[in-house]
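=== Structure Prediction Worksheet ===
Name of assembly: unnamed complex
Input type: mixed (protein and possibly other molecules)
Chain count: three
Listed entries:
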Amino acid sequence: MKFEHQFTVPAPRAALWAALQDFPRVASCIPGAEEVRPGEHGDYQGSLRVTIGPMGVTLTGSVTVAQEEAAGLWRMTAQAQDRKVGGGARAIIEAALVEVDSRQTALKITADVQLMGRLGELGQPLIKRKADAIFKEFGENLAKLVSS
Amino acid sequence: MRDFSYHAPASLAEAHSLLAQYGDAARLMAGGTALTVMLKQSLVQADHLVSLQRIPGLRRIHLQSDGLHIGALARLRDVETSPLVKEHAPLLAEVYRQVATVRIRNQATVGGGIVHADPAQDPPPALLVLDARLRLVSRAGQREVPVREFFLDYYETALRPGEVLTEVIVPLQTKHARAIYLRYTPRTQDDYPTVSVAALARVERGVCREMRVALGAAAPTALRITAVEEALRGKRVSQAAVRRAAALVAEQVSPLEDFRGSADYKRDMAVVFTRRALEGVLGLG
Amino acid sequence: MTIEGARYPVSLVVNGKPHSLLTPARRTLVDLLRYDLGLTGTKEACGIGVCGACTVLLDGRIVASCITLAVQADGAAITTIEGIAQDGKLHPLQESFMKNGGFQCGICTSGQIVAAKALLDANPNPTREQVQEWMMGNLCRCTGYYHILDSIMKVVGKDSPSL
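=== Predicted Assembly ===
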């Protein structure tokens, strides 16, 4: 399942790049992200709580982050499980920083997400809709973070 | 299914206390047909299940000056077979008769269905064209919310933490209004509709005086389609006017693709079934 | 938090016989009938209230026992397929299903018969269309529907030939 999302952050490209280095702080902009902290192998551990009405899953797992500063590219590989629901997710998320002008930077996000087990049964369009909402809120929160 | 504690309060006050005590960890249960399935699939986690079934009075269907009052715990089968509903809101008796199978209608409740807020359910479009209101009661007090403002998103509603839906109030319609509900179920009759349409109209001497249209399964929530209503209200009834009005639906819906069809297909069917519903309710074709 | 291992009292009259048990809140009625009371005639197939195999009568109404919690049924009178025969004599529906081949593999049969009995109790003289509508939620994966319908219609006394 592939998603694309794009939003603009009111910060110069270099400033946004610098802000993105504090991964746990950036992760705090993701709605539902909890307890994101550095792991033992250069990765990050944490969980993501996603709800649709009364239904909810808590995906707990790890993220590894690779950066190419020259290309302005972030690549995150995440894998997570929900113990209770029985199922999990794997995702490769790429974020490209593209300068709009001296004060604004566009963040172009592409994500390739695989859902396993029961999570896969929720229906792709519903998941996609939820993912869009999460990216949108993340963008708004990130904009607030870098402009504060 | 993960284990949970079970509470069957004997009064609304007791139910409110339990909700206050357990907060997010508690889930209300009415008939349980949707909730039990979600619990079995672990899509819903509850530490405390609070059943409303022992609270007296919540299953009552009665007539008052402001309309027909249907208790939230009334089973779908109660509504389908109630002489009061048949007389004062025949559209609802007809719509509830078409939900799932008689076995489910014997268990599922009116209120449980509404707060479940699955956009493909049958009753919401009918409740929308009837301008029904919902009574939401909390510890602090109560409020009435039009069904029109209740559904917010897939499975999400305006119900606040601590609130309990206690009854649905259906205003009485003028005798001259006609109402119809069409559901498109190409797979099996007991399936959720691919798309559904409810319409209510009043025609005087060939002119459409009142028109209300609502669709189900065509967007994140059931919704009234005011563009179609405005296109017909006050206008002379004709096939051409109906066709033009129904075409407006395509712009108003945002169906999700699933195994019942692609988004484009559902949008097309929304137009087709809206046209048929309009023809039916306006006495054309 | 949940009280782990909590048990709740449930009193039921099943096929005329009273039972009082302590059961976890998550126990479904079908599991209570099968595993606690040993009444294995009721089957669980889909587990989500769609197929009708687990149909029982709860205070005279057909319900899906797979999506009914046992605690919800506290105080109710339940009739299962084991309670359909009376005084050692099969119900006319049971006789008719046997005589007219109203089943193949048998998994759906107890649900079919309990559902049909509920219909005939409420309306002893239904049309074929009324039977079809009532029974539509009882799935038969062997697709023996015509024989099932015929079996019911023979009891009603209206022999309408199947296609």
